[in-house]
Structures are given as C-alpha cells and as structure tokens.
Design goal:
The chain is an alpha+beta fold and 529 residues long. Helices cover 25% and strands 29% of the residues. It has 12 helices and 19 strands. The N and C termini lie far apart (119 Å).
C-alpha cells in the first residue's frame, strides 16, 4: 500500500505542475488584456470635426432660429438645421452707423429686403433668391415649363465644413456678409448728398478696410453686423463733383423667417388708392400671361370674432405697434403719437378698437432692437433732410405688411416753418413768425406723421383728394370743420392756402390733421374681413 502511494505521488506532482504551467500563460494573457483595455479607456478620444473647428479659438456665439459664430472677429460660421432648408426668409439691410448721413443715415433701410431661401446640393449650402413675382395655376405641362424658365437664382454658395452635434450643417459665410453686394449695400443712392438721385454716385467697395462687427440672434430672426468701407465718386453729367471720397457704414443684415402660412391675399382694385404687390400669372384657363395685383395690408383679425360679427368693437388679435425713438427733441413724442393714433377713428368705423398703438423704445427688453426689421419704428434721422420718409416690409407671397418704418429728419422744423409761412401766412398770423410756436409746430408735425402712417397702412398717395372739394367750400367753416380741406390726408395738400385774412377767426380749418372721408373708405375696403 505504501509502495503504491509512493509510486503515484510523483505522477500527481507532475500533473499539478503541468496544470500550473498551462494556466500561467492564460492568466498572463488576461492581465495583459485588462492592462490594454485600461490604457485604451484612459487614452483621449479623437476630436470631432465640429470640436476641431472651435478648439483654442475665441468665439462669440449667438443662438436663435439659426446659430451664428463669430471667430476672433474676422470669420462668420452659421449652423443651419435641416428643418430650415427651403424655408422662405427676408434678408434686409439697415444702416446701424454712418460716417456721412448725407449718403445714408443711422436707422435707414436703403433697399428692399431680399426674398431668399437656403437649399442644399450634396455638400454645398446654396442661398437663393426666390422668384415670388410669379403665380402658376395647377401642375400642368405649361406650369412645369414656366418653372423651368424661372428657377431661383443663386446668390451665394457655401461648402459645408462639418456637422453640428444636432445634425445642423456648419458653413462659413464671411465673404457674403462682408462684401459690397449692391443689393445689400448700406448706401442710399437717393440721399441728401445726391439731391435725391439728381447727381450720379458710383460706389466702390474697399475689402481691405471692411470687417465683421458682431452677431445677434432671436427666436425668429438673426443679425450680422459688418463695418463696410467704400469710396464714392459723384458726377453731374460730364463734370466731376467728388472723387474717391471715403464712406464707412456699420451694416446690420437681418434674416427674418416668413410665416409658414401666408395671409389670404386681397386683389387690388385699380380705382382705389392702395399700394400694390405685382405678380405675373400663368393659367391653363387663359391663353396669355397677365398682371395680377395684391393689396399690401396688415393681417388684421379680431381678437373676439363673435363680438365683432355681432357689431361690437373688438381689439385686433395682433395690433399694429409703432415704437418711437427715444432721441427725439422734447415735445416731439406727443405730436408723433397724436399723428399715428389719428387713424384709429377710421378703424373703429369697421369694428376695430386700438388697432394702431404707439410705445416708446423699451429700455429693459433684450429682444428689442430698433434696427431689427421685424419691429415697426419711428426713428429720428440726424440729417439735413427736411422731409419725412416711410417704408414697409412686405411678405412678397401675399402682400402682407410685416413691419414699417417712418424716419423724421432733424430739419423737418425748417420745412414746416417755410410751408406755413408761404401757404398760411395770409390767413394765420401765427404762421408769420420766424420761430414757430410749439403748439403750431406740434400740430403740423402730427399731420405730417399721420400722412406717412397712412402709407405704412397700405394707402397710396392721393393727389386727387382735393379735387372732390369745390374751392369755395375751402372757405366754409361748417364744411371744413366736418370734412377738412381734402377728402384724403394722402393728398399733397397739408395747408389751406385758399384761406384769406379773417377766415381763421370765422372757424375755417387751415390744416388737414386727420384722415379724410376717402381714407375711411379705403381703410374699410382694405381691412374689413
């Protein structure tokens, strides 16, 4: 028995030793694998192309419906979500600052906003100008032929640099926003220095002296600010007036989303004085293309449709709000407010209350910017100009007025004083003074603002408004007190120059201070549902 155990013991020892030797490489491999996995987990992850773009760079970022990145003040990158491809927008230019107000003043929008959209072709983002002036009925062969001959022209193209974490396309757009593109130029070709376009001014862009200034973004619009430099050469016929005069302007380029659903358009009637949006219509039912005109108007809907239908006054769901500049001289705000609000009486006759509203510039609202094209503003223009100007931003698809601007120049008082002296000097002793009384100036300014507010509501200039009134009626106290001196404040007849000495004392009205009966008719036609 002992001999058997003695003979088996070496065998057992051999088997144990062999097993140990066999397991040793496996444990070594397991330990090596764990060390490799640990080293792998501790190794830094490779940067994505998006992260590489921002690495060790000083970036200013503004996030809104688009995300804008300004790299160290000299490069602009935009993040465009796929959901915005094909969405229609307005691209407008506003002068933020100017070296010469005679060539374009701060707050001015010298050009009509562009109707644009972004598309993508493989790895290229394209900015296209939309052909909004065509109306095509149906999807016939004729309609396809029209579309093939009227594709959206390309304004710019941008290679996609990378993808953002949310899948948005990231591209550089510096060359587009820091450029001298004539359609986006912050220069007024009809400015004071050119005498309203009487002198011809050629503009040359200076790329080396232009740069990015800032970016801003909000829920439905974004802005890119650029400091742009030009040289101006002015001629009168064959005579050189000035050559290579430097001009610099800080331009705000704003991209504003247009509504997904367009307002129901209203066809213009040529017999009624309204501002039209012009279209060319192609239809299978007619054998020729024809011009179609939509009326430009605000999308006014009652907040309480049931009360409105019952004949009760209702406030609008979206009132028309004008924000007034806080830099106007003392006393001007009340006159401006009176002129704008004078239109509410016309709206009340069709069932609306408080349609037009006036507010001062908000002081603590970070979303408000007077140079943002979505806000309607009345701005103080520090220029040598003497006449008010007004402009509207219109949805080119429907004629809907989206916002409006009225600019009041510093020298408007000089023009008002001259007009009052020339036209009312005989009938009104107050108009003969070199320095106008504050009350008379305020009345004249309010009347001027009311006239331009009418233009912002979609009413056209009406030179025939005074034709409806017999000349002798202009000296009638009862007639002028009831109807004013013209059937339309949109007439170029602010003062009653027919009046004679003694007429003012008898009660004859000397100034058209409120909308006339024809203006009330046009408001009814434009805005009654």
């Amino acid at each position: 028995m002992k001999r058997g155990l003695t003979s088996i013991l070496p065998v057992l020892l051999f088997l144990i030793l062999a097993g140990s030797l066999a397991l040793a490489p496996q444990h070594a491999r397991a330990r090596g694998k764990k060390r490799a996995e640990k080293a792998k987990s501790e190794a830094p992850k490779p940067l994505t192309d998006y992260e590489k773009l921002f690495k060790e760079k000083r970036v200013t970022t503004a996030r809104g419906f688009l995300t804008l990145h300004m790299f160290e003040g000299n490069k602009l990158y935009i993040e465009l979500p796929d959901s915005l491809l094909g969405r229609e927008m307005l691209l407008g230019t506003t002068i933020e600052e100017s070296s010469d107000p005679g060539e374009g003043f701060a707050g001015q929008q010298p050009g009509v906003p562009l109707h644009v959209t972004f598309t993508r072709e493989d790895s290229i983002i394209c900015l296209r100008r939309v052909r909004s002036d065509l109306l095509v009925d149906g999807d016939s062969l004729m309609a396809r032929a029209v579309r093939r001959s009227s594709i959206a022209p390309l304004l710019a193209s941008f290679p996609v640099k990378c993808k953002a974490p949310d899948g948005s396309s990231v591209f550089e757009a510096t060359s587009f926003f820091v450029s001298g593109d004539p359609t986006m130029r912050p220069h007024d070709p009809y400015g004071i220095n050119s005498f309203g376009g009487f002198l011809a001014t050629s503009v040359k862009y200076v790329a080396g002296s232009s740069l990015l200034s800032g970016v801003e973004a909000f829920a439905d619009n974004v802005s890119v600010l650029s400091s742009l430099s030009f040289t101006l050469t002015t001629r009168f016929g064959g005579y050189l007036i000035q050559q290579d005069t430097p001009f610099t302007a800080v331009a705000r380029r704003s991209l504003m989303l247009l509504p997904r659903e367009t307002m129901r358009p209203r066809l213009c009637d040529a017999r009624i004085g309204t501002v039209p949006a012009t279209f060319t219509q192609y239809s299978d039912r007619e054998q020729q293309a024809r011009e179609v005109y939509y009326a430009c108007r605000w999308d006014l809907q009652p907040a309480d449709p049931e009360a409105f239908a019952a004949g009760q006054l209702s406030e609008p769901a979206r009132p028309i709000v004008f924000y007034v500049d806080d830099t106007f001289p003392a006393g001007w705000y009340d006159a401006i407010r009176q002129g704008v609000l004078s239109w509410n009486a016309a709206f009340e006759k069709i069932g609306y209350r408080n349609v037009v509203q006036v507010r001062p510039y908000p002081k603590d609202d970070p979303s408000f910017d007077p140079n943002d094209i979505k806000f309607s503003c009345i701005k103080y223009a520090c220029t040598m100009g003497e006449n008010l100007s007004s402009s509207t931003r219109v949805d080119p698809r429907s004629g809907e007025i989206l916002s409006a601007t009225i600019c009041i120049p510093h020298n408007v008082a000089t023009r008002i004083r001259t007009d009052l002296f020339v036209q009312l000097g005989a009938a009104d002793p107050e108009a003969r003074h070199v320095k106008l009384s504050p009350a008379l100036f305020a009345r004249a300014l309010a009347a001027d603002v009311a006239r331009h507010t009418g233009a912002c509501l979609g009413l056209a200039v009406n030179y025939a408004g005074s034709q409806a009134i017999p000349t002798d009626s202009l000296r009638s106290p009862s007639f002028t007190q009831r109807y004013g001196i013209s059937a339309s404040i949109m007439d170029a007849l602010p003062y009653n120059f027919v009046a004679q000495p003694g007429d003012k004392e008898r009660g004859v009205v000397l100034m058209q201070e409120r909308p006339g009966v024809y203006d009330e008719y046009v408001v009814d036609w434009l805005y009654r549902p």
